[in-house]
Specification:
Elements: E1 5-11, E2 14-19, E3 25-27, E4 29-30, E5 35-37, E6 56-58, H1 70-75, E7 87-91, E8 103-106, H2 109-112, H3 116-129, E9 135-138, H4 147-152, E10 157-158, H5 161-168, E11 171-174, E12 177-180, H6 203-227, H7 230-237, H8 242-253, H9 255-261, E13 270-272, H10 281-292, E14 302-306, H11 317-326, E15 331-336, E16 340-343, E17 355-357, H12 365-381, E18 387-389, H13 393-404, E19 411-413, H14 422-431, H15 440-456, E20 480-482, E21 489-492, E22 500-506, E23 511-514, H16 516-524, E24 531-534, E25 542-544, E26 548-551, E27 560-564, E28 568-574, H17 578-583, E29 588-597
Parallel strand pairs: 4-10, 5-6, 6-7, 7-8, 8-9, 9-10, 13-17, 14-15, 14-18, 18-19, 24-27
Antiparallel strand pairs: 1-2, 2-3, 11-12, 15-16, 20-21, 21-22, 22-23, 24-26, 25-29, 27-28, 28-29
Helix pairs in contact: 3-8, 5-6, 10-12, 11-14, 12-13
């Protein structure tokens, strides 16, 4: 059981945690000031130290170099004692074993850092094998240049060993590399070690500077994790070194590992500034759900329009002009990089209103290929009589023409020089002449159903065109809505006081927040329910991990979940992914919204 380490915030595999020593430490952190090593058993027998709450004690250990055969590791395996103080165990990345410690030191770290595939495979293995609420420590590898990538991969603790060694060699470290002191006419840092004249700067000063630079970068990393923006920083930082670039790309290939740890909703804005943005979990997840869960319920042509800088799109001046021309006679979907295709009902759903792209007017081949594939899959899933492409030439038109050749849906083009010129808008209006307009009631109902499909699965909405029978989902034929978009409320039964409220739309994230009645509908439906099983207590405000008996593996941070136990039925939002809930002994598992005592 972990007593001294707790994870507070998550940003993919990166975590903000607290090592609960006498003086608590926020992680990721440099561990030198508080680590005490009981020593290696290779040289001599070691007794278990007394330890104490003022330090993280590394228990007596045997480290193995990379490539050590399993039978050798097994022959010299150390049985770690159960101690009552903050402890760390040394384990092999080849076969990490839970030793009941608060932290784990990876013995092969120096051989792994520098080899992208080996490092990523080792970190994925370590994170999947060891308890989620324990810290991972890599010794002898951290520099100001690589520590952000180490944290992004899930490392919680590092030391200053390599930074000191580099300083003693006359190598001056920065966040973009290392420099020989003799090549520096001026010191680029303003830390205390660099405050004196350049000619008086010694190698001892260089060691101090390197540690200062490492500590400063760790502070930056912690801030980025707190803001949910570490990935944005990594996309730029990884360009400074080939190993970092390769590691970053290898991590993106570990879809299952990153997807499990990436929240489904959050406040952080995505900065779409590089080709790697297309590989982000949030982007791929949205595209996958739009093309596998969402289904249009409008009996109308599809109108493709370009995105806007303003989010949500319908608040922009250009989209207001599109709406004036369309007059609810066509179903609007926005085309955008890096998101793909955004139906109007999902324009507030994370990350559709939470990104900012670099606008140059030019589309890369990767962007064209990605958006074209999303549009093709979208059209194959939805039955539109025709497509009106009101998009400009650059990029957009090429995507539409490529997809038009691959699907059995006629395309019409209504955009001239620019989508918002009088001529273009007149052509758009003329293309929809004679089409019936759908009602406000239909728009609101379809929005609620679309959110349910996206959030809970293709049968989540129930009702007509829900992909299931009318009683299979959360919303049947008796659905009615109140409130004003984007703060709609979903009800069942007769309109007015006699109805039962099932859910409320959360405009901040574009998702549905269920009531207890909605949660019961979910449990009773054919839609897979994300359940958290708890002990016999009534949660008040939150469910802590020690109270979780079991949890659905499909749960992600930010998911709507049902909480059930002998004494209570509740609904809330997940603060950990499902496997972590079941595995952890500390931390908040679920923030509870509504509770009913049984």
């Amino acid at each position: 059981m972990t007593d001294y380490f707790e994870v507070h915030e998550r940003d993919g595999a990166a975590r903000l945690g607290e090592l609960r020593l006498a003086d608590p430490v926020r992680t990721p952190a440099r561990a030198d000031p508080f680590v005490e090593d009981a020593g290696s058993l290779w040289a001599t027998d070691r007794s278990v130290p007394d330890g104490g709450e003022d330090a993280l004690t590394v228990l007596p250990h045997r480290g193995f170099p990379a490539g050590t055969r399993r039978e050798v590791r097994e022959a010299f395996r150390v049985d770690h004692p159960d101690v009552e103080f903050p402890s760390a165990a040394v384990v092999s990345a080849a076969e990490p074993v839970d030793a009941g410690a608060d932290a784990y030191v990876i013995s092969e770290a120096p051989a792994l850092v520098g080899h992208a595939r080996a490092f990523v495979e080792a970190m994925v293995r370590v994170k999947r094998s060891l308890p989620a609420d324990t810290a991972v420590l890599l010794s002898g590898v951290a520099t100001p240049l690589n520590v952000a990538t180490l944290a992004y991969a899930g490392v919680d603790l590092v030391d200053g060993t390599l930074a000191r060694v580099k300083g003693s060699q006359g190598k001056y470290l920065t966040t973009d590399g290392e420099h020989f002191l003799e090549d520096l006419a001026e010191l680029p840092c303003a830390c205390p070690a660099c405050a004196g004249p350049r000619e008086e700067f010694t190698r001892e000063d260089c060691e101090e500077h390197n540690l200062n630079a490492l500590d400063a970068e760790l502070r930056r990393v912690r801030h980025r994790i707190h803001r949910g923006r570490l990935r944005d920083y990594i996309e730029g930082q990884a360009r400074h070194d080939q190993w970092l670039t390769a590691t970053f790309r290898r991590l993106d290939d570990e879809w299952g590992f990153l997807e499990q740890r990436t929240p489904v909703i959050r406040d952080a804005e995505i900065t779409a500034a590089s080709a790697e943005t297309l590989d982000r979990v949030e982007i791929r997840r949205f595209a996958d759900r739009v093309t596998s869960r969402y289904r249009s319920r409008f009996d109308a042509p599809l109108v493709l329009v370009p995105c806007s800088a303003t989010k949500p799109y319908s608040d922009s001046q250009s989209h207001r002009q599109f709406h004036d021309a369309i007059q609810w006679r066509g179903h609007i979907a926005s085309m955008t990089s890096p998101i793909g295709v955004v139906p109007q009902e999902l324009e507030t759903t994370y990350p559709a209103q939470h990104y900012d792209a670099v606008v140059t007017g030019d589309w890369s081949s990767e962007e064209i290929e990605f958006v074209a594939e999303v549009l093709r899959r979208y059209l194959e899933r939805n039955d539109y009589p025709r497509v009106i492409a009101h998009v400009p030439e650059d990029g957009y038109r090429e995507i539409c023409e490529r997809v038009a050749d691959a699907v059995d849906v006629p395309f019409e083009y209504t955009c001239g020089d620019h989508p918002t010129t009088d001529e273009s808008l007149a052509a758009l209006e003329a293309a929809l002449e004679g089409e019936p307009a759908y009602s406000k009631r239909e728009r609101e109902h379809n929005t609620v159903r679309a959110l349910a499909d996206y959030q809970f699965g293709p049968a989540g909405s129930g009702g007509p065109a829900g992909g299931a029978s009318t009683d299979a989902g959360l919303f049947g034929d008796d659905l009615h809505t109140t409130g004003r978009y984007p703060k709609l409320q979903a009800w069942s039964g007769p309109a007015g006081d006699a109805g039962t409220q099932l859910a409320t739309m959360v405009p901040q994230y574009g998702v549905l927040s269920l009531t207890l009645a909605g949660a019961r509908r979910w449990v009773d439906s054919d839609v897979p329910t994300k359940r958290v099983e708890i002990d016999g207590f009534v949660p008040q405000g939150s469910v802590l991990a020690p109270g979780v008996v079991d949890a659905d593996d499909a749960i992600r941070v930010g998911d709507e979940v049902v909480v059930e136990g002998p004494a209570a039925f509740a609904v809330g939002r997940a603060e950990m992914h499902g496997a972590e809930m079941a595995d952890s002994t500390r931390g908040i598992a679920v923030t509870v919204r509504h509770t009913e005592e049984r």
